[in-house]
Known about the structure:
- The protein is mainly β.
- It contains 1 helix and 7 strands, in the order βββββαββ.
- Strands 1, 2, 3, 4, 5, 6 and 7 form a 7-stranded antiparallel β-sheet that branches.
- It is globular, with a radius of gyration of 13 Å.
- It starts with a strand and ends with a strand.
- The model has no long low-confidence stretch (mean pLDDT 97).
Amino acid sequence: MSTQVPGCMTRYQIVQEGSGGTVSAGNTVTVHATGSVVETGAKFWSTKDPGQQPFTYQAGVGGVIKGWDQGCLGMKLGEVRELTIPADEGYGMGGFPAWGIPPKATLKFEIEVLKIE
Length: 117
């Protein structure tokens, strides 16, 4: 069963519980992430693919798409969460053609928190 992110249409499901500190706005967070398009099932990005590295971003300040930014707040160190992000909180009407994300696509991300600073 999924839970709606407060103030968003994005939903999440905890795949693996974490422990310790939690992600708050302003933290620098390092994650493993795999993203796919719900409508096609096509994976468009994964930090676990050969040649890729974990992704680091600043949480809660709008540096990534809204569904990810808000959907990761409150995650614990080591937690794995699956986010389902509607187009309005993802790449919207234009999509992201360079990554194979069509217009109005719903996105699914599996996020694992590796480090919180």
